[in-house]
Amino acid sequence: MTISFHPDIATLMAFSAGTLEEAYTVVVATHLAMCEACREQVKRIDLIGGAFLTSEPEADMASGALDRLLAAAADDDIATRAPESHADVPGPIAHHLPDGLDGVRWRWSGPGVAVADLPSSRAGKGRLMLLRVEAGRRVPEHSHGGQELTLILQGAYRDRFGRFGAGDIADHDEDVEHQPIAEPGEDCICLVAVDAKLSFRSRLVRTLQPLFGL
């Protein structure tokens, strides 16, 4: 698998620091399960963060802090573990999709477009979902109300930034406007995290947007 597009360094730093919203954390973790280069990058960021911590003044630990730390360390480290898969999806989202992508219950969200929301905690502000665009279909031109992370799981699409295939991730903010076009031959399925609705250029699409749920 050749991966050409990766998360912004600021996104990886926030992931390492544990300050990303839950939905974005899941998307980045899934990309890391597919991308060895970014796993190595996060390891380097973790080392730098650890060096800064060791330079801080010592402080008293709360009661039970060591036990909680050791328990957390015993869990799988999604940032550095080797890629694993369940069916046709990477490990970090396999528990959401026990039957793989073929078992997803899609909801119509416009001509040639379907979505499936993935559960997340109530504390999270972002929305985590799967997005499927039929092969050869254009998504209406749009911008974003906030940050959007889009990870390609299957198929590919093209926009003004290039071709995004399996493993590639688009890390966009509110300044980006684009029109993805799914490549012919295979539906494009993406794992997406957003914190605001899309802003469509077309007045007609904006009018129908409440029906689409995007």
State the helix count: 6
Q: Could you say which structural class the secondary elements and strand pairing correspond to?
A: alpha+beta
Number of domains: 2
- Might you state the CATH topology name of the largest domain? Jelly Rolls
Helix content: 25-40%
User: Mind telling me the CATH superfamily name of the largest domain?
Assistant: Jelly Rolls
| Uncertain segments | 75-84
Strand order of the largest sheet: 3-4-5-13-7-10
How does the overall form come out from the CA principal axes? globular
Secondary-structure element pattern, one letter each: HHHHEEHEEEEEEEEEEEEH
Describe the sheet with the most strands.
6 strands, antiparallel
Number-wise, the strands total: 14
Terminus-to-terminus distance: 30 Å
CATH architecture label name of the largest domain: Sandwich
CATH structural class of the largest domain: Mainly Beta
- Strand content is 15-25%
Taking Cα atoms only, what radius of gyration do you get, to the nearest Å? 19 Å
Oligomer: single chain
Give the topology, please.
Layout (H helix, E strand, L loop, with lengths): L8 H9 L4 H13 L1 H19 L10 H10 L10 E2 L2 E2 H4 L12 E2 L4 E5 L9 E7 L8 E3 L3 E7 L2 E3 L2 E3 L4 E4 L4 E2 L2 E2 L5 E7 L3 E3 L2 H10 L2
Antiparallel strand pairs: 1-2, 3-4, 4-5, 5-13, 6-11, 6-14, 7-10, 7-13, 8-9, 8-12
